[in-house]
Amino acid sequence: MAHDITIIRPEMRAEQVKLRGEGWTPGRRAAVKKGLHTLHTLEIMATNIYKCQITSKSCALNRQLTAAMCNEMTHAQDFQTKLYEHGFKPSKLRWSYWMVGYVFGLGSRMLGSRRILKTGVWVETKAVHHYAQLLADIEWDEDTRAIVEKDQADEYGHIEHWKHLLEHPEEIC
Ligand SMILES: [Fe+2]
Ligand SMILES: [Fe+2]
């Protein structure tokens, strides 16, 4: 399925929030809970990486990092909403992912724009593999699967953006 990754915050209507998972086996519920915890915490980390990489300079890299941050915030909201729809709570350990994102983001910013881009490619490549595994292993409901697929497509888009800027350093700040 093709996804429009230029839409970084898709529209969501109130009636799309639903109570999910009723009548599912405990095994299916447990797998979905674990998957949503993984995705939610990863997206918290990704949001913080980009947020901490942005400098005050007016340039193409900062514009794209800001768009990516907004997109990751949407992803975190997607999975937080899905957790509560299924009757789950976010992971108690999510603060540690916030911290990892902060360290990666700030650390790469201090090492310059190429390190920022390489960190982005590295993290997003790990993310798309995680997404692929969770899509293959878990019996998602249709709506949640569609969200996971769209968000994975967004991560592929991020990899392409950062690779493009690595190959076109003249477009970096
Ligand atoms: Fe994301
Ligand atoms: Fe991403």
What does this protein structure show overall?
By secondary structure, the protein is mostly helical. Helix content is 71%, strand content 0%. It contains 5 helices and no strands. Helix 1 (26-53) runs parallel beside helix 3 (94-110). 32% of the residues are buried. The model has no long low-confidence stretch (mean pLDDT 97). The structure holds fe (ii) ion (2 copies). One fe (ii) ion (FE2) is lined by residues 43, 46, 72, 75, 151, 155.
Give a brief outline of the structure.
With 173 residues, this protein is an all-alpha fold.
Q: What order do the helices and strands come in, and which of them pair?
A:
Elements: H1 26-53, H2 60-85, H3 94-110, H4 113-137, H5 142-167
One fe (ii) ion (FE2) is lined by residues 43, 46, 72, 75, 151, 155.
Descriptive terms for the model:
173 residues; single chain; binds fe (ii) ion; mainly alpha
Q: Level of helix content?
A: over 70%
Strand content: under 5%
Q: What class would the helix/strand composition place it in?
A: mainly alpha
Cα shape: elongated
Major sheet summary line: none
Distance between the termini: 35 Å
Q: Give the bound compounds.
A: fe (ii) ion
Rg (C-alpha, Å) = 17 Å
Oligomer: single chain
Counted beta strands: 0
Estimate the mean pLDDT confidence: 97
Order of helices and strands: HHHHH
Are there runs of 5+ residues with pLDDT below 50, and where?
Answer: none
Q: How many distinct helices?
A: 5
